[in-house]
Fold:
Amino acid sequence: MLQELRSGKLKPKIPDYALDIHLPQGRKIGRGLKHYLTEAAKLAKEDKSLSKKYKQKLLKIAVKKSK
Structure:
């Protein structure tokens, strides 16, 4: 399998939700920090007791930059 990946014979399909700011394909379609914080960084079992203060601050910055 590794040889097939390296040779280009095997190309894994990256799901849409995984295309974020960290991949060239994600940046190409305009996915930035806002998308990362609201979609790509979702947690299956998020600890609800933790403060969301810093995430909210980052989200405010991301929204300002996207305008």
